[in-house]
Design goal:
With 149 residues, this protein is of the alpha/beta class. The chain is built from eight helices and five strands. Helix 8 links the parallel strand 4 and strand 5. The two termini are 29 Å apart.
Length: 149
Amino acid sequence: MVSKRLKAMGKGGGTLVLDAQGLSLQVDGDEQMRARIRAAELNGRRVALSALTPLEVRRSGQAGRRLAFLLSRFDVKPVDEAVLRTAALLLDATGLDGHECLVDAIVVATTALCVPPVRLVTSDGSHIPKLCAAAHELPPQPSIGLITV
């Protein structure tokens, strides 16, 4: 019941996107992360993540089962042609190395294509902010708010 409610929410409420650290904190039961997600849900925001993010947060045992449950509740966005094209533009605009920053570029590209207003939960203080700033220069000039954890 919660999963259907969560996926149905957010038509006008925007999107809270989790990077690997945000998802990892939620899987591990971090109370601050849980509160952020509850607040997002209450405000009608979708909780989303790139399809690559679960690969960074792989777990086994009980934590693996919790991860699978969370993925069933969240909006897992595919890495499609639009995301790849946007990620390439972000890497070009920032001059960041695709080998080192590929996943970060895909996460920011995914975020940029989500329903605004958009907030990205991340612990990255170097590449992600640069990529988000570059995203603001792309049509339709999405503004990505950062929540640092």
